[in-house]
């Protein structure tokens, strides 16, 4: 791993603002011309309680996630090569939704204070620096667009999608009433969101500069989390099944894998590594 981390080791053995007993499994992910295969699952959290919101490091060497210890939710990092976890935060607040920034030395996470204040914070991997990134903005989820720009799911009624330009210190909304899945579409300058504006949810691409939206597909019924492969295929999960849909190729969601043989189900969040060779899946341990 390229990042030097001065933290306590966890034995290889949590998030959503309503927490359940979840774990994160890391699969080998094999993509051919027309097939997708998963294999060799590893429970990278293996922790009683809430383990959720996985995101890969930019170089694919590890997985950031939120994890509960001693009734506290902190950020942990799983080192894929060495098969170990490290704690990255240890504050009196609860931290969620970790993502590495374009600067490899930092990650951002949503921090929920004991008094209820909820803001996006920036942390150094070595633990020596942490600071509020955006003042007065109640962020639930976020995604980085570039080194100085990010988009945030802003908590409200309805929820909104807001762009923050850190260089010029400006913020502006580009959409409202969206789901929690906000992702950069591979090989584009666009984001994907799940819009809740109509009777049924719809997946759209949206330009963070112009706010221009374009319909992509309907999400898998009953699912609210998706991931993108590097070649532009969407992945969603439901129950113990995984489905794919490649815009312009598939008209409907196509089942490609089942977790039943591993005794797993209750799929929620998903994350695919930058090089498309690993898939992190959150499962509900209470449904086993």
In words, what does this structure look like?
The protein has no helices and 25 strands. It is mainly beta. The radius of gyration is 18 Å and the shape is globular. The two termini are 33 Å apart.
Percent strand: over 45%
Assembly state here? Answer: single chain
Span of the ends, CA to CA: 33 Å
Helix content: under 10%
Low-confidence stretches: 1-17
Q: Could you say which structural class the secondary elements and strand pairing correspond to?
A: mainly beta
Radius of gyration: 18 Å
Gross morphology: globular
Supply the number of helical segments.
Answer: 0
For the biggest sheet, the summary is: 5 strands, antiparallel
Strand order of the largest sheet: 1-7-6-5-4
How many beta-strand runs?
25
Instruction: Write the element-wise H/E pattern from the N-terminal end onward.
Output: EEEEEEEEEEEEEEEEEEEEEEEEE
Output mean pLDDT: 92
SSE blueprint:
Elements: E1 9-10, E2 22-31, E3 36-43, E4 51-56, E5 62-69, E6 72-79, E7 84-87, E8 94-100, E9 106-112, E10 118-124, E11 130-134, E12 139-146, E13 149-154, E14 160-165, E15 170-176, E16 183-184, E17 191-195, E18 202-206, E19 213-217, E20 226-228, E21 234-238, E22 241-245, E23 254-258, E24 267-272, E25 278-284
């Amino acid at each position: 791993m390229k990042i030097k981390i001065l933290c306590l080791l966890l034995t290889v053995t949590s998030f959503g603002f309503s927490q359940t007993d979840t774990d994160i499994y890391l699969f080998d992910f094999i993509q051919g011309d027309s097939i997708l295969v998963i294999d060799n699952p590893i429970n990278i959290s293996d922790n009683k309680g809430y383990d959720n919101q996985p995101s890969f490091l930019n170089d694919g060497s590890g997985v950031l996630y939120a994890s509960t210890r001693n009734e506290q939710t902190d950020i942990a990092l799983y080192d894929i090569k060495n098969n170990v976890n490290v704690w990255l935060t240890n504050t009196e607040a609860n931290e969620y939704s970790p993502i590495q920034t374009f600067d490899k030395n930092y990650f951002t996470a949503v921090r929920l204070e004991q008094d209820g204040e909820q803001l996006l914070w920036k942390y150094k991997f070595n633990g020596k620096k942490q600071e509020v990134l955006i003042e007065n903005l109640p962020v639930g989820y976020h995604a980085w667009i570039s080194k100085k720009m990010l988009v945030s799911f802003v908590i409200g009624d309805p929820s909104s999608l807001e762009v923050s330009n850190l260089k010029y210190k400006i913020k502006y909304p580009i959409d409202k009433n969206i789901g929690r899945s906000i992702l950069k579409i591979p090989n584009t300058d666009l984001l994907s969101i799940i819009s809740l504006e109509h009777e049924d949810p719809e997946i759209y691409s949206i330009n963070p500069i112009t706010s221009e939206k374009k319909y992509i597909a309907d999400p898998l019924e009953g699912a609210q989390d998706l991931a993108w492969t590097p070649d532009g295929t969407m992945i969603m999960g439901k129950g113990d099944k995984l489905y794919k849909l490649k815009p312009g190729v598939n008209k409907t969601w196509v089942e490609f894998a089942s977790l039943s043989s591993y005794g797993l189900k209750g799929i929620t969040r998903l994350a695919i590594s930058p090089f498309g060779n690993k898939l992190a899946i959150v499962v509900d341990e209470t449904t086993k």
